[in-house]
Structure formats: structure tokens, C-alpha cells
Amino acid sequence: GAVVSQHPSWVICKSGTSVKIECRSLDFQATTMFWYRQFPKQSLMLMATSNEGSKATYEQGVEKDKFLINHASLTLSTLTVTSAHPEDSSFYICSARLDGLSRTGELFFGEGSRLTVL
Amino acid sequence: AQTVTQSQPEMSVQEAETVTLSCTYDTSESDYYLFWYKQPPSRQMILVIRQEAYKQQNATENRFSVNFQKAAKSFSLKISDSQLGDAAMYFCAYRSPDYDMRFGAGTRLTVKP
Q1: Do the chains contact at A112 and B99, CB–CB below 8 Å?
Q2: Interface residue ranges in chain A relative to chain B, Cβ cutoff 8 Å
Q3: Cβ(B94)–Cβ(B68) under 8 Å?
Q4: For A29, A67, B15, B62, which has the most beta carbons within 10 A of its beta carbon?
């Protein structure tokens, strides 16, 4: 089956530093990937749509300068949280769309990355 | 914009019994997908079952089945013969033709031994 891997799974950083989270599709190409944020005991909120070779599309209210997204290849999208602050602490999940005709219509999710900003 | 509503923040079921989780959604599109995902404490999103909107037949997957009422925009999940391993957060999700996926607030399912 299609596998999506996120790295790191858990990261702790100091306030003011930047953190990069990677999302990789291991056995398929994904022109489009999605980034979600999940607060404790809450649902997944779509942050942005990442498209290979073009700028990401951000949801309303998401700061594009704070959350930099780069989709440089067909198997890798990165989310960089710049100048992180404690309020950026959250669980970040990516998902990927299988290129070509997907008979299942589903997205494939990574394991998630827990960010803690001290 | 599409919205997904799960009106049951928490549900509880006795082991081996049946439980139904509710989900409604709002959309003006005719072609879309609906999903139920399970999120255990590990936070990994696990696909439970999917339903294509153009299919009238309700999807089933072993002990999991859905009641898809397109006109009512309702998509409930029935778990039969509940097991302790079914305890988790369950999210209902709507996916539009352009792969924009939106999630409900979730239902926390507890299974009592």
C-alpha cells in the first residue's frame, strides 16, 4: 500500500528557532500534499495545500510567512515553522494524493509530527 | 465551503455490542467521497471505511458499515461486535473532487469490557 512518512515524529525546540518537518511519499508520486494541524483533543485543521513546483495554497488565517511550505520533488514536501513560539506547539500531520487515477479516492496520511516549543 | 458535523463528542459501548456514530455534512457538490478515520493514541490516522457519493450501496468493511443517506447528507458509522481495540477517536471526513478534505470534530469512543 501507499506509505507516507513524516520526520521527525517529535521535536522540541527553543522559542525563536525554526523547525523543518518533512513529509515523504515512499512508494508513489504525489504532486499534491496537504498539511494539517491538530490541537489536543481537537480535529484536524487544513493549513495548506502543497503543490510540486509551485507555491502552496494557504487556508484563511494561516500565516504563510510563519509556515513555509516547499514541495521540491514529487515525493517530498517540507513544512518549516519559522521563529517558533510556544503557541505553535501542536501536532502536524501531512497527507498525500496518489498521482494518476486513484480508484480509492483516499489520501494517505503520515504518522504526524509533534512540535513542542519551549 | 463544506462542513462536517459530528454531534457526539463521546460515545461508549459495551464490548461485543453495536454502536453507531453520527455524521452530517453540507455540500453543494454532487461528486465527492466520504470517509471514517480512526485515530488511536498513537495519533496515526487509520482509514476505517470509504463511500463514493455516486454509489447508492452502503459500504461495508468487516464489522464496520455505513448508512449513507445522500439526500439527507448523513453518513453514520456502525461498529458491530465492538472490541477493546476499537477504542479511539473517530473522525468523519468529506473529500471534494479536488481532494480538499475536511474533518468533523471527532467522536471519542470508549469500549467497556
Answers
A1: no
A2: 32, 34, 38, 42-46, 49, 91, 93, 95, 97, 104-107, 109, 111-112, 114
A3: no
A4: A67
pLDDT of residue A41: 85
What is the distance of C-alpha A31 from the center of its chain?
14
Q: Which long-range contacts (CB under 8 A, 24 or more apart) does B72-77 make?
A: B72/B24, B73/B24, B73/B25, B73/B26, B73/B27, B74/B22, B74/B23, B74/B24, B75/B23, B75/B24, B75/B25, B75/B34, B75/B36, B75/B51, B76/B20, B76/B21, B76/B22, B76/B23, B77/B20, B77/B21, B77/B23, B77/B36, B77/B48, B77/B49
- Give the per-residue pLDDT at A105: 67
Q: How far apart are CA A112 and CA B14, in angstroms?
A: 30
